[in-house]
């Protein structure tokens, strides 16, 4: 592989005029921007998204592709089919890179070690973002509290510290809830050639099943993500995740958020529901986070815990999936 590989970034868009500029500016600041191709996969935006993207074309290598399915997961697969880079990643339009050397750092393990299939991205809190987003962004993978409690910690996968990154080995029961990753494009093309969509958290699971279980983690470079505007948006996103993304196609979902086949986990989930709806314990933890990070935004902790937990429960009950079958599947 060439010393300076080409990187393909796929950005699905639909009416992203408020955020796409910041995203592209953060790419423009990258030290290796001349080796980055950007593929905007647009769902027929009706605002100024295309106009803003066009204003960057003289400074960045950008291609505009139409999706039209109103399905971001389909957009990611379209991007993969169009990509020409050695390495490939997809990101949301409301994300931006904190560090100007993000790609130099993140491509290092892929260049150094052929068995590494991808470099996981980590998130950070941007002081200019609203308090709700900052509160959730102090988690390295920007997870809701319930996902922090019930999904594997990246530390459980770490096997060796290398210069500039940490080598991780995933197992089917130890895959962190993280979908933003810089992958080897050729491998993804081979594994997902016949797939219609590219489903976020399912990707690493399928890779592990195919023997690609080594990942790299670079905690020193971060991504900012303007994840939430208000609690209503959090509720809608979690409901959409349950109804549209997960239970609507349960047979084909690969990433298991909760393992209810273990009686212990059912008991722990019942305790979590009490914890979330009591509010006081989560408030105490929020005060601790506020002191730790010197940010009063962390006082949103009990509300985020309550809304995300109850949205997941309500969405599961509202879905047409037989609950007994759901327990068997997850």
Low-pLDDT runs: none
CATH fold descriptor of the largest domain: Spore Coat Polysaccharide Biosynthesis Protein SpsA, Chain A
- Overall average residue pLDDT: 92
| Terminal-residue CA separation | 39 Å
Order of helices and strands: EHEHEHEEHEHHEEEHHEHHHHH
What structural class do the secondary elements suggest? alpha/beta
* CATH homologous superfamily heading of the largest domain: Spore Coat Polysaccharide Biosynthesis Protein SpsA, Chain A
Q: What gyration radius follows from the Cα positions, in whole Å?
A: 20 Å
CATH class designation of the largest domain: Alpha Beta
The biggest beta sheet is recorded as: 10 strands, mixed
Helix count, per DSSP? 13
Beta strand %:
15-25%
Number of strands: 10
Give the helix proportion (percent range): 40-55%
CATH architecture of the largest domain: Alpha-Beta Complex
How many domains make up the 3D coordinates?
2
The oligomeric status of these chains comes to single chain
What is the overall shape?
globular
């Amino acid at each position: 592989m060439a010393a300076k590989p080409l990187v393909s970034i796929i950005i699905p868009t639909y009416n992203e005029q408020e955020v796409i500029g910041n995203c592209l500016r953060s790419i423009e600041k990258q030290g290796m921007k001349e080796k980055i191709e950007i593929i905007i996969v647009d769902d027929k935006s009706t605002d100024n998204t295309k106009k803003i993207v066009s204003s960057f074309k003289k400074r960045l290598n950008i291609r505009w592709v139409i999706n039209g399915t109103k399905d971001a997961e389909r957009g990611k697969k379209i991007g993969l089919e169009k990509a020409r880079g050695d390495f490939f990643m997809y990101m949301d339009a409301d994300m931006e890179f904190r560090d100007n050397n993000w790609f130099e750092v993140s491509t290092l393990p892929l260049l150094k070690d052929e068995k590494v299939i991808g470099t996981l991205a980590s998130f950070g809190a941007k002081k200019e973002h609203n308090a709700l987003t900052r509160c959730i962004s102090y988690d390295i993978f920007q997870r809701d509290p319930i996902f922090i409690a019930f999904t594997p910690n990246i530390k459980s996968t770490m096997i060796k510290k290398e210069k500039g990154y940490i080598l991780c080995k995933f197992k089917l029961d130890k895959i962190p809830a993280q979908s933003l990753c810089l992958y080897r494009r050729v491998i993804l093309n081979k594994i997902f050639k016949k797939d219609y969509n590219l489903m976020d958290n399912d990707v690493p699971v399928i890779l592990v099943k195919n023997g690609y279980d080594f990942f790299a983690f670079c905690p020193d470079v971060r991504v900012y993500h303007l994840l939430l505007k208000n609690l209503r948006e959090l509720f809608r996103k979690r409901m959409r995740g349950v109804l549209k993304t997960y239970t609507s196609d349960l047979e084909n979902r690969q990433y298991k958020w909760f393992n209810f086949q273990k009686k212990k986990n059912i008991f722990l989930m019942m305790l979590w529901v009490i914890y979330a709806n009591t509010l006081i314990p989560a408030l105490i933890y929020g005060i601790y986070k506020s002191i730790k990070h010197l940010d009063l935004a962390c006082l949103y902790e009990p509300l985020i815990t309550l809304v995300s937990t109850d949205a997941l429960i309500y969405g599961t009950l509202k879905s047409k999936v037989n609950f007994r079958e759901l327990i068997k599947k997850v």
